[in-house]
Structure formats: structure tokens, C-alpha cells
Write a structure and sequence with these properties.
Strand content: 25-35%
Number of helices: 11
Distance between the termini: 40 Å
Radius of gyration: 40 Å
Largest sheet: 9 strands, mixed
């Protein structure tokens, strides 16, 4: 039990007043032996016993009356399961407005239901509470109740994907640090299975986690485009989602439809659509699905560059593997003879673009570094590095290939395109591309890998030419081009996280594993009942005042009727 006005309890000292008055009124009268009145002694003793009982009852009633009045003035709050107010509480409302919240279930958007629940949680807070709102952008918003209500009302589906386990852990740590009696986190999400498959929130003791359960029934069927990339004159479109029906895919360049294909049912289906020949330059298109329950993932842009083949020559010490790869590329008309790009060891005094590898003889390392410095290259080959696998986001063909021998690349500026053990292995500095290893099987397994020829293709046609290639990022579907001077040298394709396309909700067991065993997954009615239930209190002063009236009436009756 707690009190709204605890200082009023000082008035309990007044409960001693009736007892003090009772003690002061007690006196022993002098005894005189008066023979004529001896026959009244027995009657007097019986009357004294009745008066003693009357006085004791009045003492108890008056003391209880004072205690009850003082307690009513202190306004005690008693725990209740429903109704009433709640003690000061630190609350974080997690409103998951990630792309999947825009899905339509039973004719209504999922976000509409989540928004109403968020508004109800926030509107039930008081000035004594600390409240925050956490959205899919990861920003924790504080402020007054009206400001947070306005933020919740204006929420729309975001393009970002919310890590629910991480969000719950952040929210739990935030409320745990507040010196308030109540600490709660309200999770308002569609609770996608893919959003809870990995990660576990560390929730401090005493923090209540309440998660709104998804609407029951069969999950909404949905298919979305997971990726679209151009290779060898065709766009390869991967389709994700949980629907078991085939999905027709339409490919457009601008407003012109250039092809259609039917993606098979199930997760991971992919189709390839041949693109018509285009003029030299950068081209953008999009792959589109027919509208379904989630519109946000029904389209994904793609971009590619049509460029004339590079004119390539091999320099001294290029090695047989580079020569063979370039021969294959010439036969495929991917490169031509010329000296726009030179591949091999550092060619002293040469102009044009270089793709250089370290010399086979360590004694020539200093000479090679001086030739690089003469070209204004700030990078150099240093001491031998440790073996390890290649890691690259820019050239996917070489990822995971083992490097057994290499030199460390040291320098500043430029672009690091591949690493080994976190150290640069492939660097572009101006018009020079440096490799940390020779392209030979004694140095790396790359020449024997299936991706070696595509790697050399990328080196001479894209990396050596200074193009950044096509990258991908999470965001609203669009294409952003990278411009260097007046030239377009790369592009980034933005799209939604493919995991948003699977609308299958997590089971209560998966939710408990992600949020902790004490987390409650509740339907709408139970969620409303459990809000602030751990700190819900009702004001008992009215009941105490009614009891005080009853005691006063009883005291008056005893004092009057027994006089």
C-alpha cells in the first residue's frame, strides 16, 4: 500500500487523545461507610461494570474514528487488477512500423491496429510517468504525452527493418535505469518470424515485457522481389515470400515492358529475363510483381552499364594465368587489344591505367614501390602478411578464396576493394589498382577458382577503368548514381530487406526465446487488462470516509443510548 499524501499520517498521533482523556477522567472517589446505603452496594457494582464496558467501547470507537479519518486524508492506494490509477511508471512503447506493417490483413492495415494500441498505452500515462516511443528508425523519442500521441498518430510504414530483440533490450535497459516503482515495455509489432529468428534480449529483473499478439488465423500470403541484378545481358530476379502460388514477374525499362517470366512457388524462386541491347551508358529498369497484401516489396529497381570493351595489354611478369584469362575474354569480345589498361608487374615509366601485382622476387620490391611513388601513388607493398580468405563486397566472385602468400598494402586514400584478415589486399588509388598477391596458384587459389575469369573481367573493365560498379543498400526502392566530374562511375540500388516479404508470425515459444521467459504475448483484450497491472492502484479514501461515518454513527448511538 502507498499513499498520495503520506505526511497526513502524522495525524495518527491524535488517536492517543481519547485514551488520554479516558485516563484523566478515571479517579477513585473517597469511601464513606453509610449504613443506610449499604443495601445499594450491589446495585452500584453492577452499574460500574456497565459503565466500564461503555467507556471502553467509546474509547475504541473514538480511537478508530480518528485513525480512519487520518488514513482517508492520506489517500491510500491499494493494489487492484482492473480499474484504478497506477503508480509512477517508466514506459517504452515500441511501435514497429517496418515495411511489413503495411500489409493488409482482413481488409485492414496491420499498422492501423498497432497505432491504436500505441495511442491507448500512451494516453493512459500520467504526469508522474516517464514515457518514450521507439519506431523502426531506432530513435527513442521522449517528451510529453501529447507530443508522443501526435508522433504515434503520424506514423506510416518505414523502409527500415527493426531488430526487435535489440529494440526490446534497449528499451528494457532504459526503463530499468529510472527510479520509479513500475517499469514496462510494450511491444506493438506484427512479430514476424524472420525478425525474431536470431538474437535474444537481455531483460533486467523487474521489467515487464508485454507483446501484442498477431491477429489469429492463417498468415497473409505474400510474394516480394528479393533482388534483381543484371549479368550477361539478362536480369536475374529472385522472389521471396511465403505464398505457395507462382508469381508472374514483369521487367520494365522506363515505362516500356521488355519481358515477363513466371517465378515458381516457394521461397528462393528465381527467373531470368533477357534484356534488349542498349546504347553505351548507364541504364535503369525495374522488376515488378502483381499487387498483393504487401505492396512495398512488389517492385525492385536494377541498373547496369553498357560500356565498350576495355583495350588491355599484359605487361612484364603478368604470368600465364592472366594471359589465359585475357585470351578467353578476347574470344568473348569482352576485351580488345590495346594499352588503355596494362596488367602485370609495375611497368616503369608507363602511362595509362595499371593493374599491378607485387614482383615475384622480394629484392625488386623497393624498385616497384619507387615506381609507384613516381606515379604519385601513396600506397606501397610492405612486409609479408598472414594467410587467410578474401573478403569483398565490390567483387563477389572472389569472396572466400584462400590466399596463402601476400604482402601487406600500406597507404592512405583510395578505395579498398578486398581484404584478407581485415587488411587491404586489393586497392584502387587513382588510375592504379594494386594486388597484395601475384595471380598465381603459389600465392592464392584464385587462378584455379571458377570465378577467376569474371574477376579479371571486373578488374580490367570496371575496377581498372575507375568504375565503382553497382552496390546495394537498404532503403526506399530507387537508384542513386555515383558521379565523378562529368562521368557516371557507379550506382547504388536501394530496396527493402527481403526478409520483410515473409509475413509468417512467430510462435509464442519463439517470442519467449527472443524476449525472455517472463515476456507475455497477449491478445487485444488481455493486453489492455495487463497494461500497468503490476503497479495499478485504487484510491481507498472514499471507502475509509464511509467507514468513518459508520463509526461516528455507532459512537453517537453508544454514547446516547447507554447514558
Amino acid at each position: 500500500m502507498s499513499f498520495l499524501h503520506p505526511l497526513a499520517l502524522l495525524g495518527l498521533a491524535a488517536a492517543a487523545i481519547p485514551a488520554l482523556l479516558h485516563l484523566l477522567q478515571r479517579r477513585t472517589p473517597p469511601e464513606l461507610e453509610f449504613p443506610p446505603l449499604r443495601y445499594l452496594s450491589e446495585a452500584e457494582r453492577q452499574s460500574a461494570r456497565r459503565l466500564k464496558l461503555r467507556h471502553l467501547l467509546l474509547l475504541l470507537l473514538r480511537t478508530a474514528l480518528i485513525v480512519v479519518i487520518v488514513l482517508a486524508a492520506a489517500r491510500p492506494l491499494v493494489p487492484v487488477r482492473s480499474g484504478g490509477a497506477h503508480e509512477p511508471t517508466a514506459l517504452v512503447v515500441i511501435l514497429d512500423n517496418s515495411p511489413s506493417s503495411g500489409a493488409v490483413v482482413d481488409g485492414h492495415a496491420v499498422l492501423d491496429r498497432l497505432r491504436v494500441a500505441a495511442r491507448t498505452s500512451i494516453s493512459r500515462t500520467s504526469a508522474a510517468d516517464r514515457v518514450w516511443l521507439l519506431l523502426a528508425d531506432g530513435v527513442v523519442r521522449g517528451g510529453g504525452r501529447e507530443a508522443l500521441l501526435a508522433s504515434a498518430d503520424s506514423v506510416t510504414p518505414d523502409w527500415r527493418r527493426l531488430d526487435l530483440a535489440q529494440a526490446v533490450e534497449r528499451a528494457a535497459q532504459l526503463v530499468h535505469g529510472e527510479p520509479l516503482p513500475g517499469r514496462e515495455v510494450h511491444v506493438l509489432s506484427d512479430l514476424q518470424r524472420t525478425a525474431l529468428a536470431t538474437g535474444r534480449a537481455e531483460v533486467p529483473r523487474g521489467v515487464r515485457i508485454l507483446a501484442l499478439a498477431p491477429v489469429g488465423g492463417r498468415p497473409a500470403a505474400n510474394r516480394g522481389i528479393a533482388s534483381a541484378a543484371v549479368a550477361e545481358g539478362a536480369v536475374v530476379v529472385a522472389v521471396a515470400g511465403s505464398d505457395g502460388e507462382p508469381a508472374p514477374v514483369t521487367v520494365r525499362i522506363g515505362t516500356r515492358e521488355v519481358g515477363r517470366a513466371l517465378a515458381g512457388p516457394g521461397e528462393g524462386a528465381a527467373v531470368s529475363v533477357t534484356l534488349p541491347p542498349q546504347r553505351t551508358g548507364w541504364w535503369a529498369g525495374e522488376a515488378v510483381l502483381e499487387p498483393d497484401e504487401l505492396r512495398a516489396d512488389d517492385r525492385r529497381p536494377f541498373v547496369w552499364q553498357v560500356a565498350p570493351p576495355a583495350r588491355v595489354a599484359t605487361g612484364p611478369g603478368a604470368g600465364p594465368f592472366i594471359g589465359t584469362a585475357l585470351s578467353v575474354l578476347r574470344d568473348a569480345r569482352r576485351v580488345h587489344e590495346g594499352r588503355d589498361v596494362i596488367v602485370g608487374d609495375v611497368p616503369a615509366g608507363s602511362t595509362g591505367r595499371w593493374v599491378v601485382q607485387p614482383p615475384a622476387d622480394p629484392a625488386l620490391l623497393g624498385q616497384a614501390n619507387r615506381a609507384l611513388a613516381a606515379r604519385g601513388v601513396s600506397w606501397r607493398w610492405s612486409v609479408a602478411g598472414t594467410p587467410g580468405p578474401l573478403v569483398s563486397r565490390d567483387i563477389e566472385q572472389i569472396g572466400g578464396t584462400q590466399v596463402t602468400r601476400r604482402y601487406r598494402l600500406e597507404g592512405t586514400g583510395g578505395d579498398v576493394l578486398a581484404t584478407v584478415n581485415g587488411e587491404p589486399w586489393l586497392v584502387r588509388a587513382g588510375d592504379v589498382v594494386m594486388l597484395g598477391s601475384r595471380l598465381d596458384t603459389a600465392w592464392t587459389g584464385l587462378p584455379a577458382a571458377p570465378g577467376f575469369v569474371p574477376f579479371v573481367d571486373a578488374l580490367v573493365n570496371r575496377v581498372g577503368a575507375g568504375a565503382a560498379g553497382v552496390g546495394t543498400a537498404e532503403g526506399t526502392p530507387r537508384v542513386e548514381f555515383l558521379v565523378r566530374g562529368t562521368d557516371t562511375v557507379g550506382a547504388t540500388v536501394f530496396g527493402l530487406d527481403p526478409r520483410e516479404s515473409d509475413l509468417t508470425p512467430a510462435t509464442p515459444e519463439v517470442v519467449a526465446a527472443a524476449f525472455g521467459p517472463t515476456a507475455l504475448t497477449l491478445n487485444d483484450a488481455r493486453f489492455a487488462a495487463e497494461r500497468f497491472a503490476g503497479t495499478r492502484r485504487a484510491d481507498a479514501s472514499a471507502l475509509l470516509l464511509a467507514l468513518a461515518l459508520l463509526l461516528a454513527a455507532t459512537e453517537l448511538g453508544v454514547a446516547t443510548l447507554t447514558r
